[in-house]
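Q: Could you fold this chain for me?
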Amino acid sequence: MSRPVYRDASARAVFPFASKFAVSIFVMDYFQLERTGDLTNASLFYFEDPFNAIRHMSNLWVGSSVTKYMPKHPVLVSQRRGATKLSGFIGGDCGGLVVSTKARAVIEKLCPKQKIEYFTCALHSKEGEVLSSDYCIINPLGGFDALDEKYSKVNRADDGKILSIETAVLDPKKVETAPHLFRLKQESTTLIVSSKLVDALVEAGIGNLFLRPLSQPPVHRPSGPIAVYSAVDKAGDRKTKKWLWLECREGDQLFASKKIGGTTLPDIIGNDLGAWVVAKRVTKLLGDLEYRDVTIVDRAGNLVAGYVTVHPHPLDAFAGPASVVFYESEGTVRSNLRPVLDPAKLKGAPPVFSLTHVAGTILVSDAIVKKLAKLTNFVATPLHG
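A: Sure. Below is the predicted structure, expressed as structure tokens.
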């Protein structure tokens, strides 16, 4: 089952959180639902702009009704060749949510009075195979005001109207009456789910749920020494333009961007695909981990072998609530979110591992950092303990 995820765009890191810890670990009870699902799993069904035949498709992004525009039998087509694996939640790049009938039943049970549009749809592979007719498009209508505007980081127009939200902090009093699934009133493209709904979905076997944890106003400022581990930045050094940059993936083939980056192959190839891609010779420095062979397709279309993706064993070293946000001072929230490690849990930890509750983040010890320091395009950020 896929773990929920939080993607921090500023740090270009992926932070998956296990939903069963939504209540016990985090100080918040709500999450932002990412529509993309697991982008690192190329076998999963994924769609882009499937509603091009529907007029007023933008209604799906903002929570306006699309009943009179929706085709009688909508069909969603996978944008990935060979991607036929289905999950309870279907990832895609559009305004609506696509879920299985089982997931719909869970949502309907916990949101009986909420205004939500449901449209039964079929899923087809890129090759035209009918994969399932047992899915539906969900469109939660309207919006709910749960934002704490004092602590949230927002961009405003000259008249004070909120244009966009960079860091959303929820108001504890407002969420007392919040539904289990809703759009944020101040930014209706943002979908919020409660931990109760997340737990119910996971208990029903619904996978591919990727979530961004949302915090409540600060109580105190986390502090502590710098831990002896650093988080790998899979994007590498974005300032050095000569390095090859990967922009998409199909199976075990990773394709270079023709617009971003250069043509030089470094020891570690940067990307936003959630994969740590390293040259095979680097594995000698990392030790006994799981590695999967991949083929790089460079800008000219040439196939380049000799690279692997790294998949370390997970370890519970997560410090819980302190990891959600760093606070500059009482009442001031920083937008750069990073996980915080629990020093007690680091005793006996291996030199390379991924966090159990932040599984997309790969951590390397100081000893490994020293070994990798001379490699081209290696970037890692020390974490707080």
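A (continued): The radius of gyration is 21 Å.
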